[in-house]
Amino acid sequence: MINIQERMEHYRIAGLSMIAIEKGKISKKQHFGVLEAGTDKIVDEHSIFNACSISKFLTSILVMKLVEQGIVDLDEDVNKKLVSWAVPDNHLTKHKKVTLRNLLCHQSGIMDPEGSFMELESFNKIPSIVEILNGQTPYCPTTIEVTYEPESEFHYSDAGFCIIQLLLEDITQKPFSQLMDNFIFKPLCMTNSTFSTSLSTSTINNFACGHDQHGALIPGKYSIYPYLAACGIWTTPSDLTILLLDIMNASKGQSKIGITSKQVKELFRSHGCKEWTGLGVFLDGKGDNLEFSSLGWGVGYQCMLVAYPNLEQGIVMMTNTDTGMHQMKGIMGEIYRSLS
Question: Are 235 and 195 in contact (CB under 8 A)?
Answer without folding.
Answer: no
